[in-house]
């Protein structure tokens, strides 16, 4: 049997899509070892130039020794050129992923990008190599942030069928999964097209036997509704939310065509912090128009937010987006300096949060590396645990631990 290796780049939605492909594949053997593979399926990302470069250098590094297929968001932006250069054998869109067996057997090179309005209905019963389960609940995005390529490669927002999602969670819970991460392109828009809501789905999920903790992918500030605020004290919801701001200068938010407003963001974050939530955000530095004056204002506003986690990038010009034509452009080195500046600010806030938290940590141990069992607590902070016992895949509660800059440490 030919061996297939799946290489997944990018976000949690891609992790889910790769699992769907693995579950749909017939007549091939899946290998976790790239060296053993005859075929490599790349589930690509195209959110930044860097993402495109990573995919391209990965393909180059395979030196033409394997039969390579490209899917994911990069299929829509880079597929054609990579096929023309004979660097890959075939390209297929995310909507076609369940047809993977037929694609891998195609003798001739091909390109089938499929339908950007497709809604998945598959059920996966495992997450190979994972101790927590990623559940895709929606796809696509109706926002039009001026720098973002995603709506053009993932389509408009559409929700998965709720009964199928709950069936999916039940199946994975029976197979031993207790932690579920809800993912999608714009998770918070779940249910807007199907007369339900994220909060309602999470409440129903929490009733399923075996569901212990529900985590969320990135959500938009305006999607934290009153209904969502009512579930914030539930024991099954993680005490961490990743809420995408992208910037903290009111002027820059307008330039980036963002829907969030700094004053409201600050009120929301203060409300969540009072409830003991750790809060993460996305931030783009160096977007065209980010003058020194606006940057200074953004830093002042960032200092005022009770943030604990950061997912930040320097601006990446994406062809076909409104920002690609915007001026003045910001020098790449300056954008990087600004990125490091905010990373330092948030790292200090994270350390202060961990030092000030007085309570037990509820942890799912995910792996064992360098002599430590590693996992994340309810605040999505990493913990390194020393133990004689095999803790992999276990839930543990820890009261005594050391807070160090890079992580918390415990012995059990
Ligand atoms: S919300 Fe904005 S940044 Fe996020 S996927 Fe949609 S358009 Fe892109």
- Outline, from the CA principal axes? globular
Q: How many individual helices?
A: 13
Name of the CATH class of the largest domain: Alpha Beta
- Helix/strand-derived category reads alpha/beta
Q: What is the distance, rounded to the nearest whole angstrom, between the alpha carbons of the first and last residues?
A: 44 Å
Domain count: the total is 3
- Into which percentage range does the β-strand content fall? 15-25%
CATH architecture type of the largest domain: Alpha-Beta Horseshoe
> What is the helix content?
25-40%
Overall pLDDT: 95
- Give the names of the bound compounds: iron/sulfur cluster
Question: Could you name the CATH topology of the largest domain?
Answer: pyruvate-formate lyase- activating enzyme
Outline the biggest β-sheet.
Answer: 6 strands, parallel
Reading side by side through the largest sheet, how are the strands ordered?
2-1-3-4-5-6
Rg to the nearest angstrom?
Answer: 22 Å
Summed up, what is this model?
The chain is of the alpha/beta class and 412 residues long. The protein has helices at 12-24, 49-61, 74-77, 79-84, 100-104, 150-154, 162-174, 198-206, 226-229, 250-255, 262-274, 292-303, 332-356; strands at 3-8, 29-30, 39-44, 67-72, 90-92, 110-112, 133-136, 138-139, 158-159, 179-183, 213-216, 240-242, 278-285, 309-314, 361-369, 372-376, 382-386, 395-398, 402-403, 408-411.
């Amino acid at each position: 049997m030919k061996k297939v290796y799946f290489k997944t780049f990018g976000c949690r939605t891609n992790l889910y899509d790769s699992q769907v492909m693995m579950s749909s594949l017939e007549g091939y053997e899946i290998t976790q070892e790239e060296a053993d593979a005859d075929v490599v399926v790349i589930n690509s990302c195209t959110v930044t130039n860097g993402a495109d470069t990573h995919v391209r250098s990965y393909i180059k590094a395979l030196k033409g020794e394997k039969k390579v297929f490209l899917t994911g968001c990069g299929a829509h932006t880079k597929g054609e050129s990579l096929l023309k250069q004979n660097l890959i054998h075939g390209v297929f869109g995310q909507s076609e992923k369940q047809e993977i067996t037929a694609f891998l057997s195609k003798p001739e090179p091909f390109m089938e990008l499929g339908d950007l309005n497709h809604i998945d209905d598959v059920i996966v019963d495992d997450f190979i190599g994972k101790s927590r389960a990623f559940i895709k609940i929606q796809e696509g995005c109706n926002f039009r942030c001026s720098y973002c390529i995603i709506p053009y490669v993932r389509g408009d927002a559409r929700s998965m069928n709720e009964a199928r999602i709950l069936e999916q969670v039940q199946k994975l819970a029976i197979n031993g999964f207790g932690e579920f991460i809800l993912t999608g392109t714009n998770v918070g828009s779940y249910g807007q097209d199907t007369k339900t809501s994220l909060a309602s789905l999470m409440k129903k999920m929490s009733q399923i036997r075996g569901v212990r903790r529900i985590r969320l992918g990135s959500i938009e500030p305006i999607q934290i509704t009153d209904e969502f605020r009512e579930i914030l004290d539930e024991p099954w919801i993680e005490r961490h939310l990743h809420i995408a701001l992208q910037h903290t200068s009111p002027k820059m938010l307008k330039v980036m065509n963002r829907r969030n407003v700094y004053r409201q963001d600050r009120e929301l974050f203060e409300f969540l912090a009072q409830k003991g939530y750790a809060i993460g955000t996305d931030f783009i530095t160096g977007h065209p128009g980010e003058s020194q004056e606006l940057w200074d204002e953004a830093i002042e506003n960032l200092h005022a937010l009770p943030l604990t986690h950061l997912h930040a990038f320097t601006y990446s010009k994406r062809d076909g987006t409104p920002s690609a034509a915007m001026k003045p452009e910001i020098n790449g080195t300056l954008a990087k300096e600004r990125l490091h500046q905010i990373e330092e600010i948030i790292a200090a806030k994270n350390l202060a949060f961990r030092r000030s938290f007085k309570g037990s940590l509820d942890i799912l141990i995910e792996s064992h590396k360098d002599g430590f069992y590693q996992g994340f607590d309810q605040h999505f902070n990493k913990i390194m645990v020393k133990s004689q016992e095999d803790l992999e895949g276990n839930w543990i509660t820890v009261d005594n631990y050391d807070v160090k800059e890079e992580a918390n440490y415990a012995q059990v």
